[in-house]
Amino acid sequence: MDGIEADTHAAERTLAGATPDEIAAWGRRSTDWVPPSGLGPLPADLRERAARLLQHQLAVAEALVEGITQSRRQRDVAARMSQNPTRPVSSFIDRPV
């Protein structure tokens, strides 16, 4: 449980201040997890299922990273647009034609 909490906090810190590239790199980590010791080998009948599960987790993580990266880019563009005081502002005048 402590390890999961630590990973959650690390992800939160990364998302709070990282660039999109740093977020993407963090999301692609696959060597950080260390299996618990003392469990023995994975039963043969579970290996295929475990491999499919791992691939599914990696695909989901990649999709999340891509979504986060796109959201950050959109947010950054929107922030730049709203902070530009010289940008023209639309004016609409009602008058008969």
Notes on the protein architecture:
This protein has 97 residues and is mostly helical. It has a domain at 2-30 and 47-82. Helix content is 65%, strand content 0%. It has helices at 2-17, 20-27, 44-82. α2 (20-27) runs antiparallel to α3 (44-82). It is elongated. The N and C termini lie far apart (71 Å).
Number of strands: 0
How widely separated are the two ends?
A: 71 Å
Gross geometry? elongated
Helix run count: 3
The percent of residues in helical segments reads 55-70%
Radius of gyration: 23 Å
Written as H for each helix and E for each strand, in order along the chain, the element string is HHH
| Low-confidence runs of at least 5 consecutive residues | none
Q: How much β-strand is present in the residues? A: under 5%
What is the gist of this entry?
It is built from three helices and no strands. It has 97 residues and is mainly α. The chain has a domain at 2-30 and 47-82.
Task: Offer a few descriptive terms.
mainly alpha; 3 helices
Question: Secondary structure elements and their pairing?
Answer:
Layout: H1 2-17, H2 20-27, H3 44-82
Helix pairs in contact: 2-3
